[in-house]
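Quick bug: Putative phage tail sheath protein output formatted oddly.
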Amino acid sequence: MATPTYPGVYVEEVSSGVRPLTLASTSTAAFIGPAEKGATDKAVKVYNFSEYQNLYGGFVDYSFLTHAVYQFFNNGGSQCYIVNVPVTGLKTAEVTLDTNLKISAISPGAWGNNLKVTITQLAAVSPATTPTQFNLAVYLGANPAPVETFEDLNMTAADPNFVATVINGHSKYITVAVEPATTTLPTAVSKPFGKKAEVSLGSNLDIFAISPGLWGNHLQVTIAPTTSTQFDLKVYLDPDLTTPVPVETFKDLSMTATDPKFVETVINGHSKYITVKALTADLPTATTTLLSNGEGDGSDGTVAKPDYTNAFQLLNDKDDVSLIATPGRDDVIGDGMNYCANRSLSDCFFIGDLRQADDSVETAKTAVGLITPKNSYGAVYLPWLYMTDPTGRSPEPILVPPSGYIAGLYAKTDTQRGVWKAPAGTAAALAGTVGLKTNFTDVQQGNLNPKNINCIRQFSASGIVIWGARTISSDPEWRYIPVRRMSILLRVSIYNGIQWAVFEPNDEELWSQLRLNINAFMMTLYRRGAFQGSSPSQAFFVKCDGETTPQADIDQGIVNVLVGFAPLKPAEFVMVKISQKAGQTA
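Here's what came back:
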């Protein structure tokens, strides 16, 4: 207060008593699942997909975490937490050709078991000499054509065509290793992958699926000497076909480490399916071998349910997280919703994926019936979605769970319209998907909707859209997603905005300030269309006075504030009645 010492006007600022409340964040997601790399003991916030890749690696076949994060940002998300869950028993498919060339899948996971490599030796320069070069082809799955072909490889480490030089770092599928060092050409062979899926061809060549996983057991490699020092290697995926076609072919490979066509040089880093290791310099003999016949089947490993439930706890100190998903894991939906409901502020919402196989009305209803506990802090969606394979290994679209797409659409809707708008409808089109595993009809959805299962539908005018907005709860009061999420928004915003009231004198002055501040906040939301009602009195109320806080509570240091709101509920069923208008005469 100014001290008057001279005649004149004194001006000072006086607090209005208004402490504006700000809207809590509702669009920060948390994704829990196995990543290719990165810390597993903490939740880390990332702001774009490039940052995620730097910290956690790329797409892997044993987890949908990366796919979900990619689609989250692709559909409007701006920030999310990552909780990397460790995988037990993850292996890379590999195969050994002869004794000196080992080929491995380029990354861990069961996908490598679908690789096959074929080696073909090139013809010798003269009948008196032995072949020194070979070709190597890589096949993936049922594709009869090779996905990669490496030609004129050799086993000479100093040669530019040294098999390891040509393949490692260039193949998308495999890596190779030559050990011990040898110039002996691998024999002509066709072998599929096993544990990473791997196989040894004779005593001079080991071949591995490019990554661990059961997929590598479906790889086969074929080696055919082409000269006394060269051979061809072909990789097949799903060699059970009547006339399999290699997915990769590497020609004129050699076992000389100095040769530019050295088998490791040509294949490792270039093949999408395998890696190789030359064990000697001897040329491998002609052969066809499944990698699953080798000593190392690829495996996707396992992540136990307790690993996920423990991972939820890493989010305990993340106050800004509001959406949680465990991409592709239906067995933790109940645990996820329970965690959201039992956080200190009950401030999160869980987005659940049903299993890929739960794509019929009956299987989906059965799956939802098994989810326990059920509450209004989560929703489930189906079916799974097709997206273009981001690794480029599959020419066909791959199936992925929808939670990453859904979380991104939630964030986009919150930003553009507000949390009170249901994240569904013709405006809720999903980006980055090329199809649905199942196209549900109106009749089929009519059987799923009463079970609170949200469908993703495809319409000619609007594309692939979210066509459901229900929580999994059976409580009619909390049936709709925007109602539950609006309640979360109010709870967190008011909690954060009235911290100043703690230890203030508990009397009418405090009560009036609380009413003033919360009323101002609710009025702002009302003007944005967040509540039902044609007037503020119909839309909300704030009560804090001697009636809500009697003397008994004052004596215990308690002040009670009662806030009510009229939630906006989505127009789920639009009923139109059409009648004829009777004709009128002039």
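Actually, after a second look the formatting is fine. The first strand starts at residue 29 and ends at 33. Closing.
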